[in-house]
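Appendix B. One record, verbatim.
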Amino acid sequence: MEKVIITAAICGAEVTKEHNPNVPYTVTEIADEARRAHEAGAAIIHLHVRYDDGTPTQSAERFKECIDAIKRQCPEVIVQPSTGGAAGMSDEERLQPLTLNPEMATLDCGTLNFGENDIFVNSISTIKHFASEMKAKGIKPEIEVFDRSMINTALYLVKKGFILEPLHFNLVMGVTGGIGASMSEFNFLKESLPEGATFTAAGIGRHQFNVAAMSAITGGHIRVGFEDNIFISPGVLAESNGKLVSKAVRIAMELGREPASPADARNILKL
């Protein structure tokens, strides 16, 4: 079977225990959720971190604590820190996890009206700065795409030498303020990607597993997890990220794809 890379976005910066009591905050909770996701089939852990009270932080010290704890439980897994952080954080605050020299990190390629009240700001100069830091450290960027213009920005940065090929994108679909999650919108983004690029797709909320199926059946990869969706089925809270990953694995297997190991993922993504 063709391999599919499954990324587990285990906690995010916005979702809370009030939304789902199983959302992890502490170092131990985050490591345990990463293990559950990996055991279920995730090759990549997309990582935000929190303080114990749930406050999101980009502290390099807190990231190191969490990454070390994850690696003790699943040493082969790829840990992909977010440089998005939370709305309102400064550029330098958001960049702190890069000091730990991860294999991958996220690179947001545009500004977005994020939900009802927040604006997630990424000027071209900010994106160039982040891309330059990743290039200097040999960190592969996952290019975060919330609409078509962000693909254009990424391709502009390739021409200017800020991002190196081969490119890897994450198509985030269904955020209020971004592109929707219909099949036509998915195809629009996918067909806009450059030749030779790889891509993951992430559906937000009720779109999570529909988008997973769209991506799996068209040769892409899958992201699931509490950051994007807290339900295993309509109205039923997921017990863990592992349960979400397991459902994504079942969908992929039905479509002729099997989950990639971390070694497979490193090979596919040219890490």
